[in-house]
# Entry
Amino acid sequence: MIYIGTLIAIQFIALTAYWLFKKYHAQAVLLFTGLAMLTIALILGFDIPELTNSTGLKGFDLFKVIQETFSSKGVGVGLMIMTIGGFVAYMKHIKASDALVYVSMQPLSIIRKYPYLATSLVIPIGQLLFICTPSATGLGLLLVASIYPVLVNLGVSKLSAVSVISACTVFDMGPASANTARAAELIGMNNVMYFIENQLPLTIPLTLLLMVLYYFSNRYFDKKEGVTRQETVSKEDFKVDVPLIYAILPVLPLILLIVFSKYIQLFQLLG
# Structure
């Protein structure tokens, strides 16, 4: 029976991926496939998630699972997601995110003679920004407006510039990430501890590996395509019309979370 359940689950995963690829409504697809898999699990005799108050009938328990799941997730992780989204939107509204991107990208002007090294360095800088402003779309738009023209003018192709910008959000991590909040809840940890103990040890070596891969692959394909170093973008340099001190605002929650974590307090006691 376990093998049958596994095969059915694989088929539903493939079907879900196909529908999402065809750009069907994501929430409807996930809800339908989830309900379908729960229903099949009941038919095959598998146990459904444990309920606080069972109805006594498995058929009705299916709807009870939905009710309890929506209630618990809406109150817990749902409110956290809304809070994070509101903070990100406000930082974008006051242009603090623009100031943070502008300040972070200034060091790249020092290594203009090494365009592919500058391109690779965008990845860790962008990931740090992504931790502070966990909006992949928002950060992508900012980086396209700010660093994209710089990279292209350094001599790399447009595809190479876009590739490293997309790589900045490949790891959905950080204490402010909704996925981090959900994962931390599942294993019974708080966001900061999960970020420090579980995410950072994996992210740092993988980021270095990404930098090396993007450095050589972008240089290879640009050389193969015959990309020459020239001024190809006439767009004005990315500028901000707010005080650069605003750059500290998106980073402030991350700083406070880490400073007041038990690890920092432990270091102080040991010192």
Remarks:
- Confidence is low (pLDDT under 50) at residues 231-235.
